[in-house]
Design brief:
This protein has a single domain, classed as Spore Coat Polysaccharide Biosynthesis Protein SpsA, Chain A (Alpha-Beta Complex). Helices cover 25% and strands 31% of the residues. The protein is built from 5 helices and 15 strands. The strands form 4 sheets. The chain has a 7-stranded mixed beta sheet, sandwiched between helices. The protein has a 4-stranded mixed beta sheet with strand order 5-15-7-8. A two-stranded antiparallel sheet has the order 9-10. Strand 12 and strand 13 form a beta hairpin. It is globular, with a radius of gyration of 16 Å. This is Transferase 2, rSAM/selenodomain-associated.
């Protein structure tokens, strides 16, 4: 049975965190929260869910995710942002994946991410189309986030065989931005 570490980045994430955490905790054997300086109630919400928060200064998204994966107890990681909410169908899909046969460590899974702005579904937030398909579930021994300051992505770390990425076909990530300013001022964009 596959063990899964969920890596979650936070910074002033209180608005959606109570919606983000329950589905993540259903699939997680451990949940690693890395916070880069929240001043709202993010840390309190994490504690209410029984989570330990690791503090790490933010330099770039990929670097922050890579730091989170170094804290993982398990090699398989699901890397999420604090405004991405797993749908029930994908929770079931991940649980089936965890209960199945051992996975080839060079495989990774792209998860369709649907974007919402001010509560409305959007087709494009330039330069990203909705849905987009970022790799979110991978083995940290064979893949990691690259160090690009913008548009980072998961890449293989041990040769060309790491290019195999499956794709979950059900829509299951909602990335929500409630304020126009949060789209414009996001670090790393």
């Amino acid at each position: 049975m596959l063990k899964l570490s969920v890596c979650l980045l936070t910074c002033n994430s209180a608005r959606l965190l109570s919606q983000v955490l329950p589905p993540l905790l259903k699939v997680a054997d451990e949940c690693i929260v890395v916070d880069s300086g929240s001043t709202d109630t993010t840390l309190d919400i994490c504690r209410q869910f029984g989570l330990t928060v690791h503090h790490h200064p933010y330099t770039a998204h990929g670097a922050q995710m890579n730091y989170a994966t170094t804290l993982a107890s398990y090699d398989w990681v699901l890397c999420m942002d604090s405004d991405e909410i797993l749908d029930n169908e994908v929770v079931a899909e991940i649980l089936r994946l965890k209960a199945g046969e051992d996975l080839d460590p060079v495989c990774a899974w792209r998860l369709p991410r649907y974007w919402y702005v001010l509560g409305e579904a959007v087709r494009t937030i330039y330069p990203v189309s909705s849905p987009d398909y970022p790799v979110r579930l991978f083995n940290r021994t064979t893949a990691a986030f690259n160090n690009r300051p913008v548009d980072d992505q998961v890449v293989g770390t041990s040769g060309p065989s790491n290019s195999r990425a499956g794709c979950v076909t059900i829509p299951f990530i909602r990335c929500t931005k409630s304020l126009v300013s949060s789209i414009v001022i996001l670090p790393g964009w």
